Amino acid sequence: MSTPVPSNQHPTPATSSDVIVPPSFEEQLHKFWKNYANPIYTLCVIVLVAIIGKGGYDMYVTSQENQVGADYTAASTSEKLKAFAAAHSGHQLAGVAKLRLADEAYVAGNFTQAALDYQAAVDRLKTGPFAGRARLGCAMAKLQAGQTAEGENQLKQLANDDKQMKAVRAEAAYQLASQAAAAGRNDDALKFLDQVMTVEQGGTWAQRAMMLRSTLPVPTAINLPAKP
């Protein structure tokens, strides 16, 4: 039986050159910065330019809006309103300017021009309370200009459009009732008056509808034959 080789009970200690010392945080940071400094600089510049660009754009838009508002405020005459609408045709305030011009033409009895200006206001305003009023004005101007069928058709569209303000819908229905009553179409007049009351109960147009109804003849009751 062979004698086992005794283990070394006292190993030779490792020298300092054999120990792996991890790099310090400062050394790691220096190495990272050395490798990625340029990309980081580039990214910072891009972000900074984007921030400055966004801020500059916002300032530009604000200044432009302020200038357009100032130009609109300065448009105190019809000619200036026309010039403003032409210079800022893509802006909603141009629609408001056209609406004012249409009102002026309507009051002056120039219904054909009023209808054109009201339509121009509609095209610029698209939606909202001013757009609804412009549509109503356009329909009324066409009625006054003798375009009865087209005007009444536009009024019906407004009266049945639940996206419009109640006051606009009620006035459209009332104007239809008034037109029908003037033409002796009492059944149509009563139908539109009922629509006014449905759309705007207790409002101004509902009160006018009640007054108009009181001037119409009472519908004749239909006497059905008695059952045998």
- Rounded Rg: 40 Å
In total, the number of domains comes to: 3
Mean pLDDT: 78
Number of strands: 0
Q: What gap, in angstroms, lies between the N and C termini?
A: 138 Å
Count of DSSP H/I helices: 9
Account of the protein in words:
- This protein is mainly α.
- The protein folds into 3 domains: 34-74; 76-127, no CATH class; 147-216, no CATH class.
- The chain is 71% helix and 0% strand.
- The chain has 9 helices and no strands.
- The chain starts with 24 loop residues before the first helix and ends in a 13-residue tail after the last helix.
Task: Record keyword descriptors for this entry.
228 residues, mainly alpha, 9 helices, disordered N terminus
How do you describe this structure in short?
This protein has 228 residues and is mostly helical. It is 71% helix and 0% strand.
Topology:
Blueprint: H1 25-74, H2 78-87, H3 92-107, H4 111-125, H5 129-144, H6 148-159, H7 166-182, H8 186-199, H9 204-215
Helix pairs in contact: 2-3, 3-4, 3-5, 4-5, 5-6, 5-7, 6-7, 7-8, 7-9, 8-9
